[in-house]
Amino acid sequence: MISDPASSSSIVAGVAWIEHALLGTAATSIAVICVAGVGYQFLTGRVPARRAITVILGCFILFGAPGIAAALGALASRGPMADTAEQEAPLPPQVVPISRPPSRAAPNPFDPYADQ
Asked: What are phi and psi of 43, to 5 degrees?
């Protein structure tokens, strides 16, 4: 029901179980074994590079999904980019130190390739 807290919902509990199954210790161990296997097959020439990169990228997306979702949610709730540009303080001017031009080193009298 609507008055129930979100943690008592069976749907939320089911989603939490699926998330734990996909991101838990067992899934991490399986992903490490798969990446090691694909890496070994790639090094021996049995798997094309595109397939190996796809497997590794898939693992990054799977385990980075909560962070990606949080970042997209924060981006969506922040609003248009024009509003954020007005809220930021202007940067202070950069101070560039005045430097002397580099001095020319004295020519080496024993250099056979020096201009004479």
From this structure: -70, -30
Report if residue 72 sits inside a domain.
yes
Residue 59: which of 86, 83, 39 has the closest Cα? 39
Q: How far is CA 21 from CA 16, 18, 49, in A?
A: 9, 5, 29
**How deeply is 27 buried, as exposed, middle or buried, from its count of CB atoms within 10 A (0-12, 13-18, 19+)?**
middle
- Tally the domains of the chain: 1
Instruction: Render pLDDT for 72-87 as a digit per residue (tens, 0 to 9).
Output: 888 888 766 555 545 6
Q: What is the DSSP letter of 79?
A: -
- Tokens 């943690």, residue? 7
The verdict on residue 34 lying in a domain is yes
- Which residue segment(s) compose the domain that 43 sits in? 7-79
114, 107 Cβ separation under 8 angstroms: yes
* Domain-embedded: residue 53: yes
